[in-house]
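Section: Multi-chain targets

For targets with more than one molecule, the full set of components is provided together so that the structure can be written out for the assembly as a whole rather than chain by chain. Components appear in the order listed by the source. The example entry contains two components.
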Amino acid sequence: ETGVTQSPTHLIKTRGQQVTLRCSSQSGHNTVSWYQQALGQGPQFIFQYYREEENGRGNFPPRFSGLQFPNYSSELNVNALELDDSALYLCASSFLGDSGNTIYFGEGSWLTVV
Amino acid sequence: GNSVTQMEGPVTLSEEAFLTINCTYTATGYPSLFWYVQYPGEGLQLLLKATKADDKGSNKGFEATYRKETTSFHLEKGSVQVSDSAVYFCALSDLVNTGTASKLTFGTGTRLQVTL
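Its structure, encoded as tokens over all components, is:
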């Protein structure tokens, strides 16, 4: 049990639609990151939020956006969904300043785009 | 950029066999190294970590030693169980661009199947 919770666990969307995924970070963690894991692949870093601002971004287009709230919960929004967006989306929380850089993951949200 | 290379799977072993999953990395500086495990249909769980050269991470009978000279972080277990069947990911932490954000770079994962 990592203390990171995500919702929904599974969802199906149609190409072109928009989706919002939600995450509640582990207590005491001030940083939240999102990763995309395609089937059979390792997770890929999408972006990170710290103090409610984007603090770093991977190689993902602007239609992937996010929010972090004062209670450190977070949302991942994806606009104009494409078939290739079908993946497991993982939320991860950590404490910026932790020299060990330990990152804890939630169970993930499975997104299927049809 | 930084990268992680893992041995191809699947790895199939009999219960009580010795396990090695190879992991090598390419990185600037000295990143922290991790092994994560993913059971079917679940998210990632941190298995063990090492933050500097020659550190040994260990947990649940699994071990891995941070080898700077060979840029490796191989995962080992002396006697596997059926319940160890999962996908194992090697990862390193590095900075996003030149900022303060830290992210994980993962290998492609190695599937382990343990049979009776």
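Chain B has a mean pLDDT of 92.
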